[in-house]
Design goal:
Structural class: alpha+beta
CATH topology of the largest domain: Hypothetical protein af1432
Order of helices and strands: HHEEEHEHHEHHHHHHHHHHHHEEEEE
Shape: globular
Distance between the termini: 37 Å
Strand content: 5-15%
CATH class of the largest domain: Mainly Alpha
Strand order of the largest sheet: 3-2-1-4-5
Largest sheet: 5 strands, antiparallel
Helix content: 40-55%
Radius of gyration: 25 Å
Bound molecules: fe (ii) ion
Number of helices: 17
Number of domains: 3
Number of strands: 10
Length: about 450
């Protein structure tokens, strides 16, 4: 529907309203709307935050139709429109007239909308402030899902490490819940991946890789069945490490060659562990392949050794990227200061074609934005803001919460959408840890 409307808007921008191209595009959109109005009494498009809902169902930003959905979203945002309602009885002319004013700037649009009478198109307006106020407070369900998933990940790894039986059903249930959370609000879920636990590194890391992989998988259009396999594979990618001595995994000095060799064995051990727990069904098989291939590079290098023309499967390539990103942005004993998120993305970008699949890196970078959630930005007025959300169309101007004031004191500041706020500039990303603050504490 948004693609058809996008086509009509474009036609109206270029041609006269009576032109054939406009009329044809209007006819197509009208007949589609009409067929929907036979099923539903009204068609309600709601823009809420970064999303568009069609009769309460969220439309997903996928590669197909991405541009049109984004365009309409941005247009609605600029016009301060919260919902757009079409009702039965609408005709082609009303659609064309509405479209001709929809392309205008806010003031002109508002004036013309009240002047020209629209009998079957209604609009509800909203203010940005209204939407921003509850960004950090309404993700309770998502948080519960995350922490339940973390508990299941711990149990899973613990049981495999100690040779106890594994509850496969509960690991699947966790993935289904994560997918639901993802469809509800991927940014809310992504925010939780900034949670890095120094002591329980492997648990948080495994879950974060699972979540990042699901988000990337969703963005490239995988269906739910495949997302389940991808999510489990992501969580289990390092499961082989339960066999490696803890002293080696948490060693703070440089590893010797011999120790490296042992650590690299976790790819083999992973296969063994998954086979034991999941058997040879499809889910088990794919997770085994991913555990085996997740350190294979795009150019044929990486371990375990393999022929250069042997390419990793799609899921392994996804996990390879998410694994590296999460590892780089997490403090560990031998790398206590992690990469700032935007620098970790730069590393991925630099190593596309060698380590990482270039197209997947591109989608991943678009997904996380120039300053991923959890980044801290010093602003031109001396304040410091924490990135709490992306603006899909303005990846360099995210939504932030002010956490440090001009006098460098910690405050519970306001939330600002940098894409709407004029005059405030980003000076540079910084480490919030410098001020004794853990960015993740704002998200939990
Ligand atoms: Fe690994
Ligand atoms: Fe890993």
């Amino acid at each position: 529907m948004t693609s058809l409307y996008y086509a009509l808007i474009k036609a109206v921008q270029v041609y006269d309203l009576n032109n054939d191209v406009v009329q044809r595009a209007a006819k197509k959109f009208f007949s589609y709307i009409n067929s929907l109005l036979n099923i539903y009494s009204r068609i309600i498009l709601v823009r809420y935050r970064d999303y568009i809902f069609f009769n309460k169902e969220r439309l997903r930003f996928e590669i197909d139709g991405y541009a049109s959905l984004q365009f309409i979203h941005d247009k609605l945002k600029k016009l301060n429109i919260k919902s757009l309602i079409f009702s039965s009885g609408i005709d082609k002319n009303e659609i064309v007239t509405f479209t001709s004013i929809f392309k205008e700037e806010k003031e002109t649009f508002l004036k013309q909308f009240s002047e020209k009478k629209f009998n079957h198109i209604n609009i509800e307006f909203s203010t940005t402030e209204e939407e921003l106020s509850d960004y950090l407070h309404d993700g309770e369900r998502i948080k519960r899902t995350y922490f339940r998933a973390l508990k299941t990940t711990k149990d899973l790894m613990h049981n495999l490490g100690t040779g106890q039986p594994v509850d496969i059903r509960s690991s699947k249930r966790v993935i289904y819940n994560l997918i639901d959370a993802l469809f509800q609000d991927e940014f809310g879920l992504l925010a939780l991946t900034t949670l890095k636990n120094f002591d329980e590194y492997t648990y948080n890391h495994s879950l974060n890789v699972g979540i990042l992989s699901l988000t990337l998988g969703q963005r490239i259009g995988l269906d739910k069945k495949n997302l389940v396999k991808l999510g489990i594979s992501g969580i289990l990618h390092d499961i082989g490490k339960v066999i490696i001595p803890k002293a080696l995994i948490y060693k703070s000095q440089r590893l010797t060659d011999e120790e490296w060799k042992t650590l690299k064995q976790h790819s083999y051990y992973g296969v063994k562990q998954i086979l034991k727990a999941y058997g040879l069904d499809e889910l088990g098989l794919i997770s085994m392949i991913v555990a085996y291939e997740h350190h294979w590079n795009y150019d044929g290098s990486g371990y375990p050794a393999h022929r250069q023309n042997q390419k990793p499967i799609l899921f392994s390539k996804i996990v390879r990227i998410c694994d590296s990103y999460d590892a780089m942005t997490t403090p560990r004993i031998y790398v206590p200061i992690p990469y700032l998120p935007h620098l970790a993305l730069k590393v991925l970008w630099k190593r596309r074609n060698t380590f990482f699949d270039p197209i997947l890196v591109k989608v991943f970078t678009q997904l996380l934005g120039q300053y991923p959630i959890g980044s801290c930005l010093e602003l031109s007025n001396g304040e410091i803001g924490l990135v709490i959300r992306q603006n899909q169309s303005n990846s360099d101007l995210p939504i932030i919460k002010i956490v440090i004031n001009k006098d460098k004191e910690k405050i519970d500041g306001i939330i600002i959408d940098l894409s709407v706020q004029n005059g405030l500039k980003i000076v540079r990303p910084i480490y919030l840890q410098k001020y004794g603050i853990n960015p993740a504490s704002y998200f939990v």
